[in-house]
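Q: My labmate handed me this sequence with no annotations at all. I'd like to see what the chain might look like in three dimensions before we decide whether it's worth expressing. Could you predict it?
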Amino acid sequence: MKIIYTKIFIVFCLFSLLPSGNVAQTPASYTSAEILLQLKKVNTLGSVLYIAAHPDDENTRLLAYLSKEKLYRTGYLSLTRGDGGQNLIGDEQGIELGLIRTQELLAARRIDGAEQFFTRAYDFGFSKTTEEALHIWDKEKTLYDVVWVIRKFQPDVIITRFPEDSRAGHGQHSGSAVLAHEAFKAAADPNRFAEQFKYGVQPWQAKRIVWNTFNFGNTNATSEDQYKIDVGVYNAILGKGYGEIAAESRSLHKSQGFGVARSRGQAFEYFTFVEGEPIGNDLINGVNTGWQRVQNAEKVQWAIDQLIASYSVTNPEKSVPALVNLYKEIALLKEGNWKNQKLKEVQRLIEICSGLWMESTTNNPYAVLNDSIRFNFLLNNRLGTNIVLQKISVGIFDTVYQQTLGTNRNFNFSKTILVPATKTIAQPYWLEQDMNEGSFNVGDLSQIGNPESKPSFEVQFDVRIEGHDFNFTRPVLYKFTDPVKGELYQPVTLLPAITGRFEPSVVLLNSSQEKAFDVIERVQSRSKVTGKPVLENTGNVSINFRGNFANATYSYGAKRTSAEMQVKTSRLSFEQNGKSQTAYELRTISYDHIPRLDYFHTPAIKLVTADIKIVGRRIGYIEGAGDKVPDALLQMGYEVIILKEKDITPSFLKTLDAVITGIRAYNVHEFMNDKYEILMEYVKEGGNLIAQYSTSNFVSSLKSKIGPYPFSISRNRVTEEKAKINFLNPSHIVLNYPNRITDADFDNWIQERGIYFAADLDPKYETILSMKDTGEQEQKGSLIIAEYGRGKFVYTGLVFFRQLPAGVPGAYRLLANIIALNKKKGF
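A: Here is what I predict for the chain of 827 residues:
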């Protein structure tokens, strides 16, 4: 078993932030067969944009089919980054989950071949109405973004995943369809969002917009009179069918638990017309997808046909001279979207057909402002094409060469440079400014739509291939070798000289006693820089500086000056040379299936003052899919023991005042079925078992029974975080002991009240609360309690996992009462 202690010691070090060694940005490689497919794609000038609300909403099978079978330029516009969803692989929520799901989408796109786009809309959680979603997102702001992506991408056809009505099953789903439909028209209107034109886009009229109907859940919107396509065909060049490719792509949505089996055989997708020109006999009917749509491109069409006919899978480098000539022909065409797109595609083909390898790496995952960093450059002309390296450039540094690259000979060069103090630290562009309730704010509007920010450092390689000059851009990556996983590449993140954070970030002041917290300062620079922490005023909380200890830890004590229930936030800054400097907290997310993710958070501590009494001390916690509830329990004054499978024994459970299961614990642990009888015996003998929400659907099935009496888990939820709470039995112990719960305890909840409520209850269960979203029926399954033997069993869909880290006082008070259920004599 593992015991969590209240004091955490941090080891201080200079510039030694080491990544976890997860699989990430290994440069792409292509087989000769895949090169042939890319050659054929150069000959196709059709484009399709798919639009939906979230990561994982997209139809990966259709995207793969359109991109790799029809060879259209294919894009997916996800209005949000999935910030408000659930997380099956860790405890990240909100913007951190959005960062994870962004990278999962990019990984999926690398498999199915589509491009990825986003708007500034924030996934604020489940929404039951279109109107709510559009209001919270700021409809006009999000419409601006959708129009921008359409004008920039210039799709011939727009496809929505969802309808504009309740069949979409989620207000954000239907909202995405409404916005797509309006943007279809607005993008063509020169009077709508005319300010976009200064960024180089023009009005664009897609040929049509259609809805990709579906059959899942309780909704079947397909019918045989709709236009349909068999997207389950086999691609002999790739050696896979699109059901197989789609499964590989879909399974990268790991945070959502969307791993699926590969499918083979016929698979029809259905479409219904929304607006524009009728579909007719082809999804892209009426669009000329050949080079005839570009003026004076007859020679280009002929040249590509010849390239495809003469292409050698064993000697792709023989196509390079003809590809260079093709590039020159396309460059002579009139400026336009297809000219620019095809120049990029042909340049990429020249690179991969020649076997040219170019990389720029460092030996450190992090660089620091006003500090030095060493770049290592490597080029290799693996197939002996006529290639001359002319110049390497990184920011203000460049080196001029006239170096012919020999066949399969490594050309190495290293350079140490000083990072300018004025360079911008590496922050995802949508997190650079404070956000609104339902959307991010972006200073540089030309960034809108981009899936991620540019790398901290980029290298320009100027190379002459077969007599023509090309410029190639590469990110600078951290390259290292893991003893188990082998050679790996990770991003390089640019840091400020000093970072800092609070430990812990939430302090619960539930008594008059002083509570300790620390400011952990980390000097990232090799230079001897220091900064004195400065904390903002905290109102009814006094802060006492206790001292500066080893490892750059500054210790403080916080004490409430009144018992008024409130939350105060104190932000951190550093004083350097008499001047106040913005403080940054570096946060890192590491998983094997995505690159290492770094972002900067404004360090702040939440000081929660509340009158919270606790009864019972020793809590066993069975972790689920990931949450931060144990940290909150520590703040409340409990001793928390993280229970592993081996710890769940009758003798050990007897030592616990309560056992709490983490979110989705009954979904992720097979052993819960084996431990069911032991847990029920614990309750029967006087224990208190508290089960936080689990799900029961096609994504996550239950591994075990949960309670002593039957009940089911529904999809019922209350998404309005200010929804009125009704006490069904105001005298019930859970509302009165040891804290008297009032309406005020449900103030300032975030995102939602509860999810996955209990239903179909055995009569032995008591319901405690009722609540509802506007216009709906009362829901009573958010908190149910049953007596079993001498103990208590509780199931709750109340989202404690969101409220406790947010420092909501009433959530702490109610949880304390739930934990104390079996402690009050006479009840």
